[in-house]
Design a protein that fits this description.
284 residues; alpha/beta; Rossmann fold; eight-stranded mixed beta sheet; 8 strands
Amino acid sequence: MLTLVCATTAAPLQAADKPEPPKASTALPGVSLLGELEMPALQRKRQIRVYLPPGYANSGKRYPVLYMHDGQNLFDEATAYAGEWKVDETLDALAREGKLELIVVGIDNGQEKRMTELNAWDNARIGKGEGRQYTDFIVKVLKPYVDGKYRTLPGREHTAIMGSSMGGLASHYALVQYPEVFSKAGVFSPAYWTAEPVYKFVTAKPTPKDARLYFLMGEKEGPEMVSGVKKMAKVVGGTGHPAANSVLRIVPGAEHNEKFWAGELREALLWMYAPEANKVASSK
C-alpha cells in the first residue's frame, strides 16, 4: 500500500486497449522547456522546465531560484500525472501582489527510475539508490548552467529545493548534503520510510542554523508517513536547529496528491522565502 502511495507522482501506465486523448496545455507563458541535459554519473538525460516571473524579460533584475523535482507535474495538466502543482499560476499571482518573484527550475522525473533517483540510500524493495548522483547533477551541472543562462541570485541564501513524496526525501537530503548551495527546503509528504538511514544522516550532519525547513504532511497519508515526518522534525530539533527556522504542518483530512500540494504551495513559499518576500514588498 505504501508503495502505491509514494508512486503517485510517477508517470501513469496507459491502458492497453484505449489510450487517453492528449490533454490541452495549461502552462502559462512564463514556462518553457530548457531542453535535455546530460546526467554524467547516471549516463542518461533529463528534460528541464523553467518558469520565469512576469516582467523578467524587461526588468534587468536578478531573482532567487527554486529547484523542484517531478517537473512534469509542476506547470502543465498535459504532462502531469493526477493533476499539476500550479506553480506558475501561484507565482504569477504572488508577483502581481508584490509578494514574491522567483525563477523555478523543474527537473522531470525518471519515470521507472524515479524511486531510485530520488533516494540516496539503497532499499531492498525499491533498488539501489541513485540520489547522490542525482543531487550531484543538480548542484554540479544544472545549477551552474541555470546561473549562466538566467539572471539568478546564485548564493545559497537565495536558493531552495522542493518536492513531494520521494521528492520530499530528496529535497531534505540535498539541503543536508549541500548546505553551501541550498538554504531552504520544502519537504512535502516525505517518504522517509524508504530510507531508514536518513535519520542518522541528519543527526550526524546538522544543517546550518539559518536554513529553513518546511515539513508538510496530510493526516490521511498513512500512519508510517505521518510518524516518519514527526520523527524527523524531532531529530532536526534535537540537532539544535532553531524552532523559528522549521515548520511541521500536518493537515487534517489531507491525502497524498498534487491537489493537496498545490493548495499548500503559496504559504510554504512565502515562509521559506520570507526575507525575499519582504524585500519585494518593500520595493513596491
